[in-house]
Amino acid sequence: MSTTQKSESLTIHSIESAPEKSKALLQKSNNAYGYVPNLHGVLAEAPGLLEAYQNIHELFANSSFDKDELTVVWQTINVEHECHYCVPAHTAIAKAMKVDDAITEALRNNTKLPSEKLEALRTMTLAMVRNRGNVSQDEMAMFYDAGFNQRQLLEIILGLAQKTISNYTNHIAETPLDKGAEKYAWN
Predict the structure, then answer these.
(1) Which pLDDT band, with edges at 50, 70 and 90, does 187 fall under?
(2) In this structure, are residues 70 and 93 in contact, taking their beta carbons and an 8 Å threshold?
(3) What's the rounded Cα separation, in Å, for the pair 83 and 47?
(4) Domains in the chain, CATH or no CATH each
(5) What is the pLDDT of residues 1-44, one digit of tens each?
(6) CB 122 within 8 A of CB 76
(7) What is the pTM of this model?
(8) Residue 12 backbone phi and psi in degrees, to 5
């Protein structure tokens, strides 16, 4: 078990140091990943936020998107929000999910994705982020023409909710990378 750490500004809890209502949630993270990710340790200070994050993550991971599409939504938001923690973390996650490295590298470097459909997903995700959900009928038509549907348009919002929690938390906490993501550092 890890000990409590301090990031530059916020506490990163261990299971032992966490508020009582977060202990079981951190144990759930430990069971899922084999360790408590630093992000989860920070979120533990606010048990409702940690629980919301875990639930939204599970809901989005089980959405209608496949592994490549999940990665496109997650990493598009992470890169747009310039999240020093989530870009490397989701690079490691994409590796574990066996997502093609060409997709991951295109997302990390803001270069063209290997398919028009994935590029359309990135374009719609960016439109959602940049315009705070105010997307045009033309943007929606292009998304639908690429082979996506209304459910998936709405599921981007679910992914955005998850990434807003993590990206914003990592910004204020300056969350240090977990060991497994250090080799994928990004800035």
Answers:
(1) confident
(2) no
(3) 22
(4) 66-164 (1.20.1290.10)
(5) 445 555 457 999 999 999 999 999 999 999 999 999 999 999 99
(6) yes
(7) 0.93
(8) -110, 105
